[in-house]
Amino acid sequence: MRHKGKIAPAADPVKNKSARPYRTVRLLLDTNAIVGRRYRLYGPHMAIIEIAIANGILELIVPQIVVEEVKNKYREELLKAERNLTETLVKQNTLLAADEQRALKQLKIDRVVTDFGDRLDNRLAELRARRPVYTDVPHQDLVQRDLDRRRPFQESGRGYRDALLWETLLRQTDPKKPIFFVTKNSKDFCEGDGLKLHNHLASDLGARGLPASTVVICESVEAFVDDHLKALLLNAQMLREGHLEQYGKFDFRNFFAENKDDLLIRLTSQLERSDPRELMSFDTEDLTIVSIEDPSSVSLLKAYELEKDKLFLTFAVVAEVTLEFFVFKSDYYSMPEHVNFEIQDFDWNDHYIWASKAVLLPLKLSIELTTDTPNKVESFDVELRPFYGWCWNCGAPIASDAAETCDQCHANLLTPRRPIGPQREEPLS
């Protein structure tokens, strides 16, 4: 582990506390906020959170119900991966000669899960996380909430653990300390598809004499840090805009090339936990990224000094990736003509087509860089930046849903078009 023991105070302590709108804020993590980070509470954004904790700006809350769900989800994913690995190995062995067949070492699931649980508990202790229990939530309150079909319960009655989490959160509220609630579960906690707190939950706050703004929904740890925490730290003069020339040149493209395999794994992990239709304009299954090319464009968005010898860098990147996926045959026959992709095997089975597509994806890479050792990256995060399809002419990702022209080639995005090849379209005359 990179961090050991308790969090030490930052080298540049907060001097101007009056510049902050709050003395402290609270960050409460849902299960998916940890699972979505591949169960790891490390990385450049977590480094900023650690500094905020050390300087008394931030308090981390991870309810016990979340800790238990994370540990259970880890076991489930581990068992699933083990089954898939066993099935794949059995299939491979049927193709090999007897002396070439491979044996799978039996994984001691209980030991691995216990080890993970211990590491998670230790990491939460390092982060000084409070872990409120749920034993003080009256069962009759949950039953009544379910019968009234109040969020986060659904009409079907599903949502017991989410309701338990919400009731636990309510008991942590403080009019002087807002809670930033990191969750991807917008359908149960929010209005529509946005990040506005559902009116059922806002009324719960109102019953306690609190405004709805007491709880702010964020979709990820990265979004919380970028949209909220950095502003507090900057106002407190903890993070200062850095000038890279003071620290020597960082070779981003070399870093990208050396970490392609890890980038591939991290991006694929994000896709597995998202709706494929957010990326593709048609229904797919088992969407994976099988290759990633060197970036076609790179720009430095932000450079902050975390501590004396550490920088936080954020890069905007556009890189070509190859996606593989399966398409249901009946869906394929009803697709518009301009939807195109490469068919790898039309008869993968009776129902599905195996296909692939090369696309340009906009990415955001955040890097924690140690400056006393040239180009030493302590940790990094990668995210898929929001985009709204691709330009029909050059294939560049479209950054805004209101864009009328392509930023790259200036093609008219509102012009009707027809396909002229497997990967390109042209306007109708």
Which characteristics define this entry?
429 residues; alpha+beta; 2 domains; seven-stranded antiparallel beta sheet; four-stranded parallel beta sheet; 12 helices; disordered N terminus; disordered C terminus
Describe this structure in words.
- With 429 residues, this protein is α+β, with helices and mostly antiparallel strands.
- The chain has two domains: 22-235, no CATH class; 242-386, no CATH class.
- The protein is built from twelve helices and 13 strands.
- The strands form three sheets. Strands 5, 6, 7, 8, 9, 10 and 11 form a seven-stranded antiparallel beta sheet that branches.
- α3 runs antiparallel to α4 (109-126).
- The chain is globular, with a radius of gyration of 24 Å.
- The chain starts with 24 loop residues before the first strand and ends with a strand.
- Residues 1-21 and 418-429 have low confidence and may be disordered.
